[in-house]
Amino acid sequence: MVPHIERPQSAEPTARHNSAFAREIVADMTIGAPGSEVVLETSRLLLRPWRVAEAVVQRELWTERDPRVPPHRRIDADGHPTIAELEDSIRTNQLWSIGLLAIERKASRDVIGYCGLVDSGRGSTGEPELAFELLRRVWRQGYATEASLAVLEWARSSGCERLWATVWDWNTASRRVLAKVGFTETERKEVDAVYGTTLFTTRQL
Question: Distances in Å between the alpha carbon of 2 and those of 35, 81, 144, 204?
Fold first, then answer.
């Protein structure tokens, strides 16, 4: 599931909105430990802040996106966003440090995507949106489900009572993941004549 995030060079309004939310959502986890990082752990994965050198992974995610994804979230004709632009985004955008966490496999120590929470403004106050995206070569191994369950527990421990998630109607793989972790589809939809229908799902914590 690809979150609704613009290209790095045009993302400032989204970054401000999301970073304020992210600071609040992790306050309980970092209180008394200034500068500490959010790290979530599962049996196979670590979810932790992105490192600048991992911009190449983000670039690969951009290049792999389905052609049905709107153009502003795919590599454009001029090759943007570049690795340098993504590196700058990791340095300056708190979304990549306390919002959308890098998913690292513990056994191989490689980063395979991201999972986390964004304040998309689609739900009520205090109801963030779950977002995840993984490299194609690691699909169908249960990583998205495992990472999402860790983020759900993070959200619950941080005081959230309900989460949202949006997904394209044609994205059957992400719809399966959301169903596995307890999200149910609502009647709310956004129809785009070109790119398809965005489905709104929700889950009580």
Answer: 28, 16, 12, 21
Q: Are 3 and 133 in contact (CB under 8 A)?
A: yes
Strand 40-41 versus strand 45-48 pairing type: antiparallel
> What is the token pair recorded at 190?
């956004």
d(CA 81, CA 49): 20
Which tens digits make up the pLDDT trace of 45-57?
Answer: 999 999 999 999 9
Joined together, the tokens standing for residue 3 give 């979150």
Contact predicate 162/203, CB 8 Å: yes
The mean per-residue pLDDT over the stretch 148-164 comes to 94
Q: Which residues of 57-72 are buried (b: 16+ CB within 10 A; e: fewer)?
A: bbbbbbeeeeeebeee
